[in-house]
Amino acid sequence: MGSAVTTDIAGRGPRMSVVMPNYNHGHQIEQALAAIARQSLPPFEVVVVDDGSTDDSVVRLQSLAASMPWFKIHRHSENRGVNAACNTGLEVVGGDFVLFSAADDCLSPEMVERAHAAATAFPQTGIVFSDQAEMSVDGADTRVIPFDLPKIRRYFSGDELVRLMQTDFFYFHVSSVWFNVGLLRRLGGFPPEVRWARRPACGLCRCIRMRRGLHAGSGFVCSHIADVVRGGRKAQQRAGWRLARLACNHQTAGWEHRRAALVAAAILPDYSLRGLRVLCSDLDYLTLRLALRLAWFATWSKLAPFVGTGLRRQIRNLRTRYRRARWPAG
Question: Alpha-carbon distance 112 to 119, whole Å?
């Protein structure tokens, strides 16, 4: 389902582009760009899309461009939303894979190199994704959030990715996903009418890190599934449900296949009992697997606050060991 990618003149594999949407993050964007400057393998290009910022972002970016001439700035005259900013970046990039990195992200030094290696090894892939981490605002503390997947690079076909979501379900954030540019363009990019607000994380911001286990997947619904699995609070939930309806019910080319994949994988933007009210209008989407997943997440969300951090960590470690033990050695 992925599309072919081009190779640069030197034959070093696909070109890796970075798009950085920015809205009033002038006080953090220098750190994000500095992390890109420290990459062991520089990206093919970096495009910053300022989405009508009202702070000093543009002044800061123009100043940084003097010492960092390798990034390009595109400006929206007014705030149009992060999806519109991502779409602007998607239109102008010339690479084969693109990462949409937030202005408060901090890429680990080998992220581009590891993603490039995965995309080179699996040129048919639609998306490349990895573990991510959260760091404190000052960068002193980092908490890695690993997936329960093998610590080796591997490729998942569309059917394999559905089965993986059925048995070892996990969230991955769009900021830790490299998209095949041609495929994402054919899918229409990100729906501009869907706006989302980031969930507060107790003073934490995301620090996206490529770990040893870097995984490639078919892009069977890549532009939709990456957004639908983004969890969040009320604003995100409303946006997520609108996007889910677009992905599942809107009769565009290929929508039946995307809907079937989401139904089979039991994917929802918000796993709570609230979701049952929405599903009442589309009972064909409700499966036994989805009902059980909804029940589990709804129950755990009530119990988790009463479970100590240490015990939760032990439970996660046991789950990780169990899941990884089922993978063949290699």
Answer: 10
Q: Between the CA of residue 140 and those of 7, 33, 131, 226, what are the distances in Å? A: 38, 18, 19, 29
How many Cα atoms are found within 13 Å in the side-chain-facing hemisphere of 192?
A: 11
Stretch (H or E) spanning 63: helix 57-67
- Rounding to the nearest 10 degrees, give the CA dihedral for residues 4, 9, 12, 17: -70
> Residue 145: phi, psi to the nearest 5?
-115, 85
Task: Please list the alpha-helical segments (H only) found in 68-180.
Answer: 82-92, 111-121, 158-167
pTM of the model: 0.81
Distance CA 165, CA 23 (A): 33
Q: Kindly give the interhelix angle for 255-265 and 234-249, rounded to the nearest 10 degrees.
A: 130
Amino acid making up residue 288 = L
Amino acid letter, 8: D
Domain map of the chain by residue range? 16-325
Query: Exposed, middle or buried, 115 (CB in 10 Å: 0-12/13-18/19+)?
Result: buried
Task: Please report, in tens digits, the pLDDT of each residue of the chain (330 residues total).
Answer: 344 455 443 457 899 999 999 999 999 999 999 999 999 999 999 999 999 999 999 999 999 998 999 999 999 999 999 999 999 999 999 999 999 999 988 888 899 999 999 999 888 888 888 877 777 766 667 777 777 887 778 888 888 888 888 988 877 777 888 999 998 898 788 877 655 444 332 233 445 545 445 566 654 434 334 433 333 344 444 444 444 554 445 455 566 777 788 889 888 776 776 667 767 777 888 899 988 988 888 888 888 888 888 888 888 888 888 888 887 765
**CA atoms of 238 and 266, how far apart (whole Å):** 18
Task: Tell me which H or E stretch contains 184.
Answer: helix 181-186
Q: Domain 16-325 falls in which CATH fold?
A: Spore Coat Polysaccharide Biosynthesis Protein SpsA; Chain A (3.90.550)
Residue 297, SS3 per DSSP: helix
Local structure of 269: helix, strand or coil: coil
Cβ atoms of residues 76 and 52 within 8 Å: yes
Q: Which two tokens stand for residue 193?
A: 């009418």
